[in-house]
Amino acid sequence: MTSYKDLGLSNTVDLFAKAVAGGYALPAYNFNNMEQMQAIIQACVETRSPVILQVSSGARKYANSTLLRNMAKGAVEYAKELGYPIPIVLHLDHGDSYELCVDCIENGFSSVMIDGSHLPYDENVALTRKVCDYAHSRKDYVSVEGELGVLAGVEDDVSAEHSHYTRPEEVEDFVKKTGVDSLAISIGTSHGRAKFKPEQCTRNAEGVLIPPPLRFDILGEIERRIPGFPIVLHGSSSVPMEYVRMIEQFGGRLKDSVGIPEEQLRRAARSAVCKINIDSDGRLAMTALIRKTLAEKPEEFDPRKYLGPARDELKKLYMHKNVEVLGSAGKA
Ligand SMILES: [Zn+2]
């Protein structure tokens, strides 16, 4: 048994309170390997941003949970070594059972998501409540994220055929009955790099897909019902066309990619939205640079020579997000 406090990690309680009051959102970046971790920590230290390191169940399968936990511990030390200790949260993304949440909490996670959004309302309440009861009764208080509403799209093991927006009339009751520390909502963001079908979008003059706008009316109604309560947005990559084009230029195929425009995320970050999940953009940046490097240097076979440029691009992307989109820069 390991408490996150022994690893030097933070839960989300104070960080979210500050973010809601300050009108910015914390970055929640997924990681599965060392290069991603280096890029995240370097970017967040340089921009002085707190950060949420997210681990999905897919990442646990891919990288081993013991290794991931110790990488998060290493990240705390690494930030200090870089000269500026930032608050770091280790968060389980899309926990799908009570047992998985408990396992993560007992192994150093400072925050977990229990995703009961696909269940009937009462079952979602009961499951989320059970996880909160355990996480909050501990001496070290682990924070819990719940979800109401179902996002479209596919992400690791998570996919939904029938998405629906969060019903504002449920949020007050859900928060009260479960005791969650934050709530993920569905207002039109979507998992993955093809967030909308072409027929849901319009096209601009260059033929680029323009997605339907986020439902700020629903967000506003939720904020009215639970003022100041920390809100989370999943599936919030912007899917930069420069990366999509680079990937396609060097042999990839990513038909009909479309994301959430950054100005809409910036607007959301200024509200009670205090955590924004970004995964696909990082995947695209890394893949683009790996494809480009390998295509331009066909003799290269040292992984450091193509993972290194990918890592540098990823760092650049994360710094841009912290400064220009989330507003978290300078808040650590
Ligand atoms: Zn998600």
Automatic annotation (TrEMBL):
Does the keyword Disulfide bond feature in the UniProt annotation?
Answer: no
Q: Which Gene3D superfamilies match?
A: Aldolase class I
A GO MF annotation of the entry reads: zinc ion binding
- Look up the EC number in the record and give it: 4.1.2.13
Question: Required co-factor?
Answer: Zn(2+)
Q: What's the top EC group for this one? A: lyase
Return one Gene Ontology term, BP aspect: fructose 1,6-bisphosphate metabolic process
InterPro entries on file = Aldolase_TIM, Class_II_FBP_aldolase, FBA_II, Fruc_bis_ald_class-2
Keywords from the UniProt entry: Lyase, Metal-binding, Zinc
SUPFAM superfamilies linked to this entry:
Aldolase
Q: What is this protein called?
A: Fructose-bisphosphate aldolase
Identify the species of origin: bioreactor metagenome
Could you read off the lineage of the organism from its UniProt record? unclassified sequences, metagenomes, ecological metagenomes
Q: Point out the gene that encodes the protein.
A: cbbA_1
